[in-house]
Amino acid sequence: MENKQIDLTDITGMVCKALEVEDIAGMSPALRRIMEVDDQKAITALREALPDLGTDWLQKVWQYNFAKRGQMGQDYTPNSLGDLLAELVGETGTCLDLCAGSGSLTIRHHLHYPSTRYVCVELDSEVIPVLTVNLAMRGIDAVIVNGDAISGQPPKETWTVCKGHITRGGEPFRCDGTIGNPPYNVRWNQPDLAPMWPQYAGYDLPPENNANMAFVLTGISEADRAAFILPNGVLSSDKAEGKIRRQLVDNNLVEAAISCPERMFESTSIPVCVLLLAKNRQTRGIALIDAGNRCVSETREQRGQHGSKSHTNRVYHKEINVFTDSNIAETVREIRQDADTDTVRHITPEELDGDCNLTPKRYLTQPMDGTKPHRPFAEIVEDINRTAERRNGLLLTVNATTARMLGVDEVKKMQDEGNAICDQMEAAMNSIEGMEPVKLTRGEYIRFSKNKNEVRFENNSKERVSDVLLLIMSGWKQNIYICNNDENRYLAELRDALLPELMSGNLKIKGETNG
Q1: What's the pLDDT score for residue 373?
Q2: 79 with 216, same domain?
Q3: pLDDT tens per residue across span 337-374
Q4: Could you give the CA distance from residue 85 to residue 156 in angstroms, rounded to a whole number?
Q5: Which of 65, 257, 438, 455 is geometrically suited to a Cys-Cys bond with 358, CB 3.0 to 4.6 A?
Q6: Is residue 201 part of a domain?
Q7: What whole-number distance in Å separates Cα of residue 497 and Cα of residue 345?
Q8: In a shared domain, residues 285 and 399
Q9: Which helix (H) or strand (E) holds 448?
Q10: What is the pLDDT of residue 457?
């Protein structure tokens, strides 16, 4: 269960006092110093200052003040989701925590299986001191790798935690299990010769604009059993992810897919799922579990941390959904038992839809009123808006006459028709009693201008650069290289032709006299 009474103001004060820093800005440098000199006195002071070690308090302080949600997709893992992953992966002598963050998944797994040794991989150098000290003050043995889990680049640094002591260096080892809550839907740079790498061999290469499956393939390649927290779209998205899902199923690696309740994270309401993979399975059955209503709601009370006294003295209330111990036990039992209920369906690969959709609701027993099972409305709307935002990432401004000449006037018509459908759908949904307000993102990817012959592309997002614009820029850059090479060749030719003529006197400089 989650800790109900959380006051970041008090916890932050405890952390600052234990670290002997004036404010939270000194937290990361202080933890870095502790790590580099293995300051056991400071580690003990921090351990004794925190209320209990079952909760990752440093995670909560770090997430509130420093987490890079937009840049690196950092949404740190709630305790109950960590407990679920621990029970799904089970007791393993060694365990890989992929994208470890501050170590919350490792901490929860270690509470269940305290003899486990870990390899914790984390890209963000700034959070490495939090992760390292977090494990040291709990006596969790681990090799910590500051590097990119999916790129294959050499790590920036490694650290070893053994019996509470911290030393620089350490060699990662192969693990029996993998746990992971990787950043969702982030871009990644496909490494050279990636299709030949062991984790990607035999699979379609995950697209550069979405690394979800790169984390999944890497995690299961490093262990015999793996559990991941992922966005729900991983279970149903088409094209590249759909092909990889099919390949995972064909290789008999998918043991279960679990849809989780909304509002499990403190910093985002995004609904997530858990994907459980395993090698050397004795059956081809897949358990699809709808755990969307299998939770309890807790009210978190949090005083404002920044601003005037009217803000810092005010207590804010936030409803969070969590799994209870019995919820987790029920989920694990449903995977192991081959019995279908209203919330679980065990299917064979042959029963999956053609696109290998693993969304549990799609396969559960049809309701008595004859309505067709479907995903939650909020989830569908989220996918619609995400798709629209990706499409709107590149805006074309073009003269109307030029558009007709280029054959893109039909695209403007498609945009107008699509927006009209969104208007109607949004109005219909917002007229339904009890429905949460819905806002659909309209198309804004082409507009006509009156400027003669104008054709102009521009990035239409403040958050990211459009994938299409990157392709255009790549072609543009290649064209510049080609033209520059040609220009240099012609300039050299002109120089080689001009110099002999000048030296021989056949050509003379203007104004130059023979005397």
Answers
A1: 58
A2: yes
A3: 888 998 999 999 988 887 789 999 988 854 545 455 56
A4: 28
A5: 257
A6: yes
A7: 80
A8: no
A9: strand 446-449
A10: 92
Q: Percent of the chain at pLDDT above 70?
A: 89
Residue 67 pLDDT > 70, yes or no?
no
Distance CA 255, CA 90 (A): 14
Q: How many helices and strands in the chain, by DSSP H and E? A: 16, 16
The full 3-state SS of 230-286, as one line of letters, equals: EEHHHHCCCHHHHHHHHHHHHCCCEEEEEECCCCCCCCCCCCEEEEEEECCCCCCCE
Q: Are residues 85 and 204 in the same domain?
A: yes
Residue 5 falls inside a structural domain: no
| Range of the structural domain that residue 269 is part of | 69-295+326-362
Query: What span, in angstroms and rounded, lies between the C-alpha atoms of 45 and 436?
Result: 47
Q: Which of 9-13, 296-300, 378-382 has the highest mean pLDDT?
A: 378-382
Tokens of 233: 């779209």
Could you tell me if residue 312 is inside a domain?
Answer: no
- Which has the minimum average pLDDT: 54-63, 250-259, 381-390? 54-63
C-alpha 115/C-alpha 102 separation (Å) is 20
Number of domains present in the structure of the chain: 3
Same domain, yes or no: 396 and 485: no
pLDDT band of 76, cuts 50, 70, 90 = low
**Judgement on whether residues 224 and 243 belong to the same structural domain of the protein:** yes
Phi/psi for 200 (5° steps) reads -105, -15
Q: Are residues 280 and 341 in the same domain?
A: yes
CATH number at residue 197: 3.40.50.150
255 in the same domain as 206: yes
Cα of first residue to Cα of last residue in the chain, in angstroms, is 100
95 and 89 in contact (C-beta within 8 Å)? yes
From 96-100, 454-458, 510-514, the region with the lowest mean pLDDT: 510-514
Angle, alpha carbons 76-77-80 (nearest 5°): 155
- Residue pair 440/420 in contact (Cβ under 8 Å)? The answer is no
Looking at the domain assignment, is residue 233 inside a domain? yes
- What are phi and psi for residue 390, nearest 5 degrees? -65, -40
What would the two tokens of residue 484 be?
A: 């520059």
Distance CA 389, CA 385 (A): 6
